[in-house]
Glycoamylase-like domain-containing protein (Candidatus Contendobacter odensis Run_B_J11), 656 residues
Amino acid sequence: MIAAESTLPPLLLHNFERVASPTPGVTMSSWSAEPGIRAGRMWYRLEPAQRLDGGRALHLHYRFTADAASDIGWQLTLPNLDATAYDHLEFWIRGDDRAGFADALKVEFKQPLPNAPPGLLRQGSAEVSGITGDWQRIRVPLNLMNGIADWRHLRQFGIVLQPRRSPAASGAYWLDDIALIRTGQPGPSTRDPVIPPIKTAWENSIGGKAAAQPQIHARLAGWPERLLVNPAELPAADPAFLERLARDTWRGLTALSDRDHGLPLDTVRFNGSIAPDRAGLGDYTNVTNIGLYLIDMVAARELGLINTEEMQARLKRTLDTLEQLETYQGFFYNYYDTTTLERTSNFISFVDSAWLTAGLMVVRNSVAELAERCSRLIAQGDYRFFYDPVERLMMHGYYVNLPYRSEYNYGMLYSEARLGSLIAIGKGDAPEEHWFRMARSFPASFDWQSQSPKGRAVKTVNGYSFTGGYYAWKGLRYVPSWGGSLFEALMPLLVLDELHHAPASLGRNAAVHTEVQRRFALEHLGYPVWGLSPSSMPAGNRYGEYGVRILGARGYRAGVVTPHAAALALMTEPAAAVANLRQLVQRYPLYGDFGFYDAVDPKTGQVAYNYLALDQSMILIALANRLRAGVIQGYFSADPMVQRVLPLLGAEHFFD
């Protein structure tokens, strides 16, 4: 098999024997990451290669400006290239000793994103290091460039130079024979499954996954007694209605968890019936679920749903389980089996790790008896693991099996990941500079955006200079998120009262995102209810990303409404949020024995009869903050790690 694959001839992108590439449609150019801001320049020419086989090569020169912060690069424009038959990028390179050079650079491919605005490209990249003044043949596995999964429709190949990766402000390289090759040994991939051996052997011993479902059901702490609750049963007074919703939601969170290990199942799908044999049990969980579940227990105590002794017992059981789980460099894997506790993922996620840390912080500030255990778990992971000192951003995560980082960084300030950045800074694992490196807006030249930013000027806060900017809709100004969902905008408020601590920046932005969400759904879409956020899809039992497009730089499409979005809005527009929750109850068969199901299509009335641990936890914690005067926010903000960063939040004014 390998011998047959290795006979495939290389696909030569360019050999630089002449200006035109041997592959039709391939052309050369140089670029700057942020057009209009001069970071430097690149120039190139074809010259004798000075290799044993003679011929010519590309002599590529660069020079950064003195204060350069943005990348510059050189690229080949590709003709919608299909690279699926190949598994490695290959090229020859050497540094120019006389001109100087950095010993590391980045190579990347780009392709269009499906169902995205023109010009918005997905990229896969890898760092190449150890460059010397001698010719070297470099081979990069395409699987390492994990931002791309489907290697069709390639539009660009690029060499990326970054000021922080280049100690020399100017220099030059020689490049030759850039090609795609097939070795027959593609190496590990992000798509490689993690097969838990104990769970798999157990399932096989009893007849397979379907046969295991009844036994997994037997491990649950409870089960709903009815699919739907008559809306007339719910209290007429708003405070009592919210208390009832909190009680039902908490019963569901505890019921749909593993009795022995104290871990919530990620997803339970009822498929229109509470009959156990028709349900689908997602007997896995992730670390955000666990982090929020820890907070759920504190919230339940504060709401009077359990007493202190029961809360402590539940917390101890879940912490016992956490301390048994396999970790990597002190961080937890993204998914675990709730039955056998085996990891089922190769990925270590920054944002999910941060939500687990947030949960541990809430517990250590609210339950003195468990503070030491929580502090040990917090201390074991150093967030420098995720911090990219070149980009000065947090990377999405790390694939242990590659082993290599995820392609993407959390480059936008206004996402749910901002809480993780604050935790990392407060813990001392990331510099304060990182906060100001995250984008408030993108240049107008990025024409794939939902709108062109306004007020995009350089600001200085705490000695750090960065570019501001905002979007506007019907007289309302706001810093955009990526997708325009309430999850991105409001999830951090579950633990951090941004309205209080950052009234001129994040707090104001949260209020405006809520208002635009409400008005856009009611006035523009004509929905009778509002709250667009990633959630279950009623049709097909899948998960989808939904938002108000004008609120996001890319902007997700409109679609289903999810109750967790309305619950999050209890922290920004409580009266409107309660009215919206009541509308959801009155109009749709959406309220079950364990509170709201995950989503409804307002156009068809079709309901996703699913409970997702993440979304149910967001509902419960938001209710606790509303009904008990920000109690969870108070516990989190009291933490010394948060106290260190609170002045940072209050210093910035988004709309000056």
The longest strand covers residues 170-181. Residues 2-181 form a domain with the Jelly Rolls fold (CATH 2.60.120.430).
